[in-house]
Design goal:
This protein has about 325 residues and is an alpha/beta fold. The protein folds into 2 domains: about 250 residues, Aldolase class I (TIM Barrel), CATH 3.20.20.70; about 55 residues, Alpha-Beta Plaits. It has 12 helices and 14 strands. Strands 1, 2, 3, 8, 9, 10, 11, 12, 13 and 14 form a 10-stranded mixed β-sheet that branches. Strands 4-7 form a two-stranded antiparallel ribbon. A two-stranded antiparallel sheet has the order 5-6. Helix 10 links the parallel strand 12 and strand 13.
C-alpha cells in the first residue's frame, strides 16, 4: 500500500485541551442538504494534504488560521495599520498587506475594520464548542433522517479531534458522515470507520500522474483506501467532481465507472459539476493560491457522463 510522506504525517496533529481534543475549523454550516442524507450540520476542518487546482474551498488548504482581506470592501483608511501592535500590517500600492510571520492574531485589525474587509479564516475550537453548535440542530436531524457531516479540507488530518467528535455524536444517536479524499494512513481510516455511518469519497482521476499534476499527490493511496473501506463493509457514496479539461474525458469516466462497479457495495455515484467559486475565495487569502479556470460542464456533458456510469449498473445522481 502507498503511504503518506513524513511531512504529511507531521501535519496530522491535534492539540489536547482540558481532556478534550481541540482542532481547527473554518466554518460550520447549518441546514446543509448536499453533504449527506437529510438536513445536516456540516463542520469544515481546516488543513488539506491535497491542493486541487479547481478547489472550491482553497481557504481550507492551510492547517492554521489565516487572515483574509476582501479588497473590494477596503476603503484604505489605514486603521488596521494603526492598531497593529506587532507591525505586521503595512500599505503596499494603496492596499493593506499582512506579514504573516509577524502577525500574532490578536484580532484588533479585524475588530477595527469599519468596512468589514478584514476577517479571520479558521479558528481553534474544542469538541465541546463544536457539539454545542451541532446539538442546536438535533430536531432537524430527527425529522429529515439527517445528521452531522465532517468535511474540509480533510478531516482525517485531525484524527484525534475527528474521532472524539464522532464518538460524541454517536453517544447522542446522531448519524455521522465523513467527507474525505481518503488520502490518509490506514490506521487513521480504521479508527474513523468504526464511528462513521457514511463516507463521501472523491474519485478525482483514475490516472495517477494526471491526479498528481492537478492535486499535488498520486492516487494509489486513495484508491487503496476506498477498496479497503468497501471490503470492510463501509457505507459509501463515491463522488466525481467533474472538471472540464481535467477529468471529463470519456476514457476517464469509463475507468471511474469500472472502478466503482468493482467495489460491489457502492450506494451511489454523485457527479459534482465544476464551480468557479474558489477563485474569488483564493483572492482573499494572504498567500497566493493559483487555481485553474474552467467552465461548468454542459447539460449534454453531464447526461453523457451519467449514461457512461449507468452502463456499469451504478445509481448516478447529478448534484447541483
Amino acid at each position: 500500500m502507498a503511504s503518506i510522506s513524513h511531512k504529511r504525517k507531521e501535519e496530522q496533529t491535534t492539540r489536547q485541551s482540558g481532556g478534550s481534543a481541540e482542532g481547527v475549523i473554518f466554518d460550520i454550516k447549518r441546514y446543509a442538504i448536499h453533504d449527506g442524507p437529510g438536513i445536516r450540520t456540516t463542520v469544515f476542518f481546516k488543513g488539506c494534504p491535497l491542493k486541487c487546482l479547481w478547489c472550491h474551498n482553497p481557504e481550507s488548504w492551510s492547517a492554521s488560521p489565516e487572515h483574509g482581506l476582501q479588497a473590494n470592501r477596503c476603503i484604505g483608511c489605514g486603521r488596521c495599520i494603526e492598531v497593529c501592535e506587532s507591525g505586521a500590517v503595512s500599505q503596499v500600492d494603496g492596499r493593506p498587506v499582512t506579514d504573516v510571520a509577524k502577525c500574532t492574531f490578536c484580532g484588533k485589525c479585524v475588530e477595527e475594520c469599519a468596512a468589514g474587509a478584514r476577517e479571520f479564516i479558521g479558528r481553534h475550537v474544542s469538541v465541546d464548542d463544536v457539539m454545542a453548535e451541532i446539538e442546536r440542530d438535533v430536531v432537524f436531524y430527527d425529522e429529515s433522517s439527517g445528521g452531522v457531516t465532517f468535511s474540509g479540507g480533510e478531516p482525517l488530518m485531525q484524527p484525534e479531534f475527528l474521532c472524539e467528535l464522532l464518538s460524541r455524536c454517536k453517544s447522542h444517536d446522531m448519524r455521522t458522515t465523513v467527507d474525505t479524499s481518503c488520502y490518509a494512513e490506514r490506521d487513521v481510516l480504521e479508527r474513523v470507520r468504526e464511528k462513521t455511518d457514511l463516507f463521501l469519497c472523491d474519485i478525482k482521476h483514475m490516472d495517477s500522474e494526471t491526479h498528481r499534476r492537478f492535486t499535488g499527490a498520486p492516487n494509489e493511496l486513495i484508491l487503496d483506501n476506498i477498496r479497503w473501506l468497501a471490503s470492510a463493509g463501509a457505507n459509501m457514496i463515491l463522488r466525481i467532481p467533474l472538471v472540464p479539461g481535467f477529468n471529463d474525458a470519456e476514457t476517464n469516466i469509463d475507468a471511474c465507472g469500472r472502478f466503482a462497479a468493482s467495489l460491489g457495495c457502492i450506494g451511489r455515484v454523485d457527479v459534482l459539476p465544476y464551480n468557479s467559486g474558489g477563485i474569488e475565495k483564493a483572492a482573499r487569502l494572504p498567500e497566493h493560491r493559483e487555481l485553474m479556470k474552467s467552465e461548468p460542464p454542459t447539460d449534454d456533458k453531464l447526461n453523457a457522463v451519467r449514461n457512461v456510469l449507468q452502463q456499469f449498473g451504478l445509481e448516478v445522481k447529478i448534484r447541483g
